[in-house]
Design goal:
InterPro entries: UCP037672 (IPR017259). One of its GO terms (molecular function) is exonuclease activity. This is Exonuclease. It comes from Oceanobacillus chungangensis. The protein contains three helices and no strands. The protein starts with a helix and ends with a helix. The protein is elongated. The longest helix is centred in the middle third of the chain and has 25 residues. It is mainly α and 93 residues long. The relative contact order is 0.21. The chain has one domain.
């Protein structure tokens, strides 16, 4: 078992629950919440992405492939950067 990957997966799954289900968008940084047009769509989008990447990391932690965190962490970060770019261009007034 890859413990750093498992810890990151648990954090992402908690993050997905707080953002996607509880709609706690104040946790997100990098934008002004008052300027976001659709808070509900933002919460669903970020929550769903966090859920998917958390599940992938959880599976990757159980598989115990060598150096899997060196592959999954950059994919996660690139995905979040793309998501921030999308939110700031399409969802912010």
């Amino acid at each position: 078992m890859n413990q750093p990957l498992m810890i990151a997966a648990i954090v992402l799954l908690i993050f997905a629950f707080l953002i996607g289900v509880k709609k706690q968008t104040w946790i997100l940084s990098g934008f002004n919440q008052a300027r976001v047009k659709e808070q509900d769509k933002l919460a669903k989008l970020v929550g769903f992405y966090s859920l998917i990447i958390g599940i992938v990391m959880l599976i990757g932690g159980f598989i115990n492939y060598p150096n899997s965190e060196k592959v999954l962490f950059p994919i996660m970060l690139i995905g979040y950067v793309i998501l921030i770019g999308y939110v700031n261009t399409k969802m912010v007034e």
